[in-house]
Amino acid sequence: MAEGTDGRALPATEELALARRALDAGELAHAANHVASALVRAPTLPEVHETLARLAAAGGNGGLDLFPLQHHTFVGAVVARAHLLAAAGHPAEGLDLLVAATAHTPRADWAGVPWVTSPELAERIGPDRAAQVIMQVCAAAPDPVPAADRPALAAYLTLARNAITVHPEHGLLLGTASALARRVGEVTLAVRWATQGVRAAPSKLGEVWLGYALRSAGRTREALAALRRAVDHDPDDLAVYADIAGTLADHGRLEEALGWIEHALARNPSFDCTVHTAHRLRFQRDGDVRHLVELADFIRDHPDDSHEHGDLAECCRGRPWLGQLTPPAPAPDPARSADPARSADPSGTAGPVGLDPVASAVRPAASPPSAEAARRLRELAHPAWPHPPAAYDTAVALATLDLTDLLGLLAHPPETPQTALGRVLSGQDPSLWIRCVQVWTCLGLLHHRTDEPWADSTRRRVLVELAEGVEELAEAALFALVTAAWVDPSVRADVARLVAGRLSAATGAARERPTPAALSLAHLALATPGLDKDTAALARALAGVRTVRPRERLRTLLRRLVRALRPRLPGPPPPP
């Protein structure tokens, strides 16, 4: 579905005027283009629909031939065809096209027209087709729908109400309607419809819809009971186990959650929903990055999962180096930085340095980067990313830059982009943009000459030299090396050794002088796959990360058991 055929954005009234003029001249195709554009500007404006009706009367086949579906069809033409299909006695087909338009442009009120909201439509299409349409809307909508996008789905909710009024005992209709109501914030209505659906036709899916609705209503205990009944209906649907485990974990019952997920893994150790949930909960339990690395490996080895999962991104979000840059190290004391010997310290342990030591570290880049290199870098550089493999994938946009350009970006960072992000960085912390440039350029180096074997590759040599140089570049280069270890298991031992060496050097220097970067290096080490236990323990100590010991876990569990006055959900069913 295409946005449009040109760059114009005329008001709907002007588009209608042009459409009527073309219609009067017999130029039907020209008129159809303007009507489609008017629909995009004002999809519910009565005058637009009046003109569309005139066009349909003038053209053959009810006007449908004027709005054919092609490989790339303008969204306004798709909506126009939907309305003409309904007028021609095919409302179900028209609804399918409106839902496709809603998925394309969620905030537009494509369906807010009388023929969709009329009670008569529910009788014409029947409960099965109504449920199918509502299910398509749910599949196209996020969960929950952002508040700004909810008005555009009001017509579909009205369709659900009308259909339930006619078919109050149709379990599938009630369940899908509950899912839609929940997504748009009508939680009470969602619970009522789902309860009615389970009562009318008990089923696994009905209990799942009820569980979701109750969970959104804050009725966790009842939600878990409904999901448990869903397991009773179908013990082999491991996605429900994952839902139960996730719900338990979200409410502080992590050990119970792990029990459910381990039971699911025992039934099928490769089912994607349970694998994703298991690694997320294990990381939540002990904070060990190996769980996330194993999850990343699973994602890489199983590209055809049943649906998209966000567990890895959820675990990495907001965490230093896993999902975002650490803040810049604090500036050194002026009295100390006045010592030229210290400010030029090549060990990288004397605190932040200026761009001249950075430029000397990348001396081969004597000239600034090309305009194209600077443009690409500005487009992708950001202080946050979903997780290291995603950052690696994004940096492929720099893959075709030559080494001189990449080093030039480090020596001569481009100006902050004229975007919302650039304005925030310029106004609040300009140094953060420089760190963004360094991090993303080093990630770009990972894509340089990837045909070369890692051990003797240019990309490894350059990144190692940068990692052993000045502090401002060392962290960025180390993060790139760590990212390489995330995406390529064969380099993990090498990268872990390099990171351990760098952290050890910084720790040793801390005995003689302040090391502002030690905290960031510690978090970087904790994000490193395959780090040895001693270095990991050192990193946790420097970062102030506590390890949950078995006794503490037991104490936490006992505290939960003390609160046994409330009813408890039975545990997972025993293995067969």
From TrEMBL:
Extent of Low complexity compositional bias: 334-347, 357-372
Extract the SUPFAM superfamilies matched here: TPR-like
User: What residue spans carry the region label Disordered?
Assistant: 321-374
Matching entries from Pfam families are given as: TPR_19
Q: What is this protein called?
A: Tetratricopeptide repeat protein
According to its UniProt entry, this protein's organism is Micromonospora qiuiae
